[in-house]
Specification:
Helix content is 40%, strand content 24%. The protein is α/β, with parallel strands linked by helices.
Length: 369
């Protein structure tokens, strides 16, 4: 049986940049889209030999804002992947969209070409907060976007939300969660705000009393875990919740240390034990630059770090099958010590972080490694 491969395609165009965003994207840039599309298709074609031995079981088209790139271009990308690769009929194919650039005709075209999952950037149900963080839509547009997705035939819809935003109280966040749940998404991604250096929000809000502190964010996070579990969306990763069977198969590849190919500026790949990436520069990508080698990947320590982001943690039998050895005894001893503080679970079959452990995951994982 052939190995499985995930494909990530980066669309670096946005109508405008959100003030918190650190992902590589450019505002406007419509005049560069044709050249970018040509470069993208060329890079995909050149990857044919590298991926011919795989079956592609997930494709994720992210950004940026893929929905402002145009459905026809996305279909061209999918057609090229189908032409050069072995795209399984049961592949999970995700496209990210924003509410203000979601159109029924475009979604119908995507659905007819095999796209079966949408990730909609909602972020908040509070229109004032949406303006503060630079979002172009209001919550009513988000509701319409979900309705439009359903009308287009999508049965797997994920919503992105952010907590810890300026002036956001737990009550504000509870309202956002409640209104998001009323849209009946199959998947929710709930991220705590991180002020990224170089972004407008970093300059405006670093150290500001308007930003909820760590304790307030932790309270919002724990409320999220309890509330979503009550409504049937189980936490399967630190920031991700889904109805059973609707976990993001593509994103699980990252956390399982499985292989994936990324194409586009700032896109990363992990194939055959090597990691490589394209520079964060659209012009060099259009000039058909080669990806930069990032060294070996897939070590036990890396596997542990990624697996502990998942609710079911690191399973001993799976680690032994992959690496040929079990978990080091000193690591298990440390995990047992953390379990006394309620941060980890450690038994004869696996080690995992608790929901309290997720709050300090970086510190716990660093100590274990």
């Amino acid at each position: 049986m052939r190995d499985r491969l995930g494909i990530y395609i980066h669309i670096p165009f946005c109508v405008s940049k959100c003030s918190y965003c650190d992902f590589y994207s450019i505002a406007g840039g419509k005049q560069r889209m044709p050249d970018y599309q040509s470069a993208l298709l060329s890079h995909i074609s050149e990857s044919a030999e590298a991926i011919e031995s795989y079956e592609i079981d997930s494709i994720y088209i992210g950004g940026g804002t893929p929905s402002c790139y145009g459905a026809k271009r996305i279909v061209e990308i999918l057609d090229e992947l189908k032409r050069i690769g072995n795209v399984r009929l049961d592949s999970e194919i995700t496209v990210e969209v924003n509410p203000d650039t979601t159109k029924l005709e475009e979604l119908k075209l995507l659905r007819s070409e095999g796209v079966n999952r949408l990730s909609i950037g909602v972020q908040s149900a509070n229109n004032d907060i949406l303006k503060i963080i630079g979002r172009r839509h209001n919550f009513r547009q988000a509701e319409i976007a979900v309705d439009t997705a359903r009308e287009a035939g999508f049965e797997n819809v994920s919503l992105d939300l952010i907590y810890g935003l300026p002036s956001q109280t737990r009550g504000d966040w509870a309202d956002t969660l409640s209104r998001a749940l009323e849209l009946h998404p199959e998947h929710l991604s709930c991220y705590g705000l991180k002020l990224e250096e170089g972004t407008p929000m970093y300059r405006s809000y670093l150290g500001s009393p308007l930003i909820p502190d760590e304790d307030e964010q932790a309270d919002m996070y724990l409320y999220t875990v309890d509330t979503l579990a009550h409504y049937g969306l189980k936490q399967y990763e630190i920031s991700n919740f889904a109805e059973p069977g609707y976990e993001s198969r593509h994103n699980l590849k990252y956390w399982d240390c499985d292989e994936y190919l990324g194409i586009g500026p700032a896109a990363h790949s992990f194939i055959d034990g090597r990691r490589f990436f394209f520079p964060r520069d659209i012009e060099s990508f259009i000039a058909v630059c080669e990806p930069t080698d990032d060294g070996e990947g897939g070590s036990f320590e890396e596997y542990l770090m990624l697996r502990l982001r998942l609710n079911n943690g690191l399973v001993f039998s799976e680690a032994e099958e992959r690496f040929g050895h079990g978990v080091p005894e000193d690591m298990i001893k440390k995990c047992i010590e953390f379990s006394k503080s309620g941060l980890t679970v450690c038994d004869s079959e696996h080690i995992a972080l608790t929901r309290q452990g997720f709050l300090v995951s970086n510190a716990v994982i660093s100590e274990l490694i």
